[in-house]
């Protein structure tokens, strides 16, 4: 550790700061549906997710190795390059959190790393085959696979539950949803916490603190797990609101199907070393579950904004990372300027977020207006049998009641 320089220490601290933002940015992936359906209270849900994220960080290092050994050429990469990459990733995480969009923290990190690496060492330093096979293809396939699986699982759940007792079935699905949400949290720790492990390990290699091709040291695994767990416990309430209420309305059966499908996809990708976006997986499964229930709808306006954010994540973070690398390349004062810019920008975003506070007390109050499709379906759907609406009025007048007036010329009937 004699080579542990000041710039390397700054990079490690910044990486853990990114890991913290990753935690509260992605809390929604594990707990949004559980909170929105009422299976768990908000604060209990994020505490449970934090503990399981920490546990998941110790289960594997395959994704960490993809970041530290496979995505870019680690020879010739300076610690300043890693710092610039983290600046791009953190700022994108904070901006999308501010507007409540569940974008990918993973792609923000990889975009920042790619942009900073290209600015420092050129296009040849990025391993294009790894980028395509372990990043881009999973990014396209994951939400589709998870969405289809969740749609089928939702329909199966409703089909099997037709003859079940309503209250008992709902209670069972809530319990299943809690278990599956815990599995997603565990899977999130095995995938997303490892990305920070990988970036810190890459910085340690670049700074000469560890040998090339090394696995993450134990202290790196522990610190990354703690940082993402703390961020998860803080709770990214803005994104939880969007994922739980702004995208679609979920019932316990749908929540269970969505969480189970997402957990399966994330754990499989972690085992294969794919640097998967858990946000993409969970968003796809939530939309699939929304469409799987008869009469269920997805707010496509929200889904469209999310898709735009997904498409912008890699290039936007890459541009910021490349710009930050260009400034840090000017020397120590350039690195100091970038650090001040990061701190000032983060503080400004936090101050803006205080204008409209979203927390555990109002996270389930969706302000998303219904879209065109939702409005059209509601207009043609008849009300349930036995309901009376307040604005119904009679359109056929009742027959007038006439009173017969006796004719004076007619003699009265004889009394009996």
UniProtKB/TrEMBL annotation:
The keyword Metal-binding does not apply. It is a multi-pass membrane protein. Keywords: Membrane, Phosphate transport, Transmembrane, Transmembrane helix, Transport. Pfam families: PHO4. One of its GO terms (cellular component) is membrane. The chain crosses the membrane at residues 6-24, 44-61, 81-101, 108-126, 132-153, 219-240, 307-324, 330-350. The keyword Magnesium does not apply. It is found in: Membrane. PANTHER family: LOW-AFFINITY INORGANIC PHOSPHATE TRANSPORTER-RELATED, PHOSPHATE TRANSPORTER. This is Phosphate transporter. It comes from Streptomyces guryensis. The lineage of its organism: Bacteria, Bacillati, Actinomycetota, Actinomycetes, Kitasatosporales.
């Amino acid at each position: 550790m004699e080579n542990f320089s000041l710039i390397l220490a700054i990079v490690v601290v910044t990486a853990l700061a990114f890991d913290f933002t990753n935690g509260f940015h992605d809390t929604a992936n594990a707990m949004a549906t559980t909170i929105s359906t009422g299976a768990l209270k908000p604060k209990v849900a994020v505490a449970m997710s934090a503990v399981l994220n920490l546990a998941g960080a110790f289960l594997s290092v395959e994704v960490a190795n993809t970041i530290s050994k496979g995505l870019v050429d680690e020879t010739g990469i300076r610690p300043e390059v890693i710092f610039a990459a983290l600046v791009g990733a953190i700022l994108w995480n904070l901006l999308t959190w501010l507007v409540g969009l569940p974008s990918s923290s993973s792609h923000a990190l990889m975009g920042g790393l790619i942009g900073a690496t290209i600015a420092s060492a050129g296009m040849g330093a990025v391993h294009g085959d790894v980028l395509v096979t372990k990043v881009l293809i999973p990014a396209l396939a994951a939400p589709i696979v998870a969405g289809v699986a969740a749609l089928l699982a939702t329909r199966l759940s409703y089909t099997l539950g037709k003859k079940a007792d309503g209250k008992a079935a709902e209670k069972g699905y809530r319990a299943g949803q809690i278990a599956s949400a815990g599995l997603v949290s565990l899977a999130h720790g095995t995938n997303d916490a490892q990305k920070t492990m990988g970036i810190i390990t890459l910085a340690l290699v670049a700074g000469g603190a560890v040998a090339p091709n090394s696995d993450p040291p134990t202290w790196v695994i522990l610190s990354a797990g703690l940082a993402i767990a703390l961020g998860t416990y803080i709770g990214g309430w803005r994104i939880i609101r969007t994922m739980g209420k702004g995208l679609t309305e979920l019932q316990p059966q749908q929540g269970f199907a969505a969480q189970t499908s997402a957990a399966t996809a994330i754990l499989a990708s972690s085992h294969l070393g794919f640097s998967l976006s858990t946000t993409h997986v969970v968003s796809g499964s939530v939309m699939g579950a929304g469409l799987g229930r008869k009469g269920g709808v997805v707010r496509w306006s929200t889904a469209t904004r999310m898709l735009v954010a997904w498409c912008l994540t890699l290039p936007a973070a890459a541009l910021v990372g490349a710009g930050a690398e260009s400034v840090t390349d000017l020397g120590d004062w350039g690195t100091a300027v970038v650090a001040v810019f990061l701190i000032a920008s983060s503080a400004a975003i936090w101050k803006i977020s205080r204008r409209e506070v979203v927390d555990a007390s109002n996270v389930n109050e969706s302000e998303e207006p219904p879209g065109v499709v939702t409005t059209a379906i509601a207009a043609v759907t008849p009300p349930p049998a036995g309901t009376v609406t307040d604005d119904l009025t009679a359109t056929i007048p009742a027959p007038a009641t006439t009173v017969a007036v006796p004719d004076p010329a007619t003699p009265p009937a004889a009394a009996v």
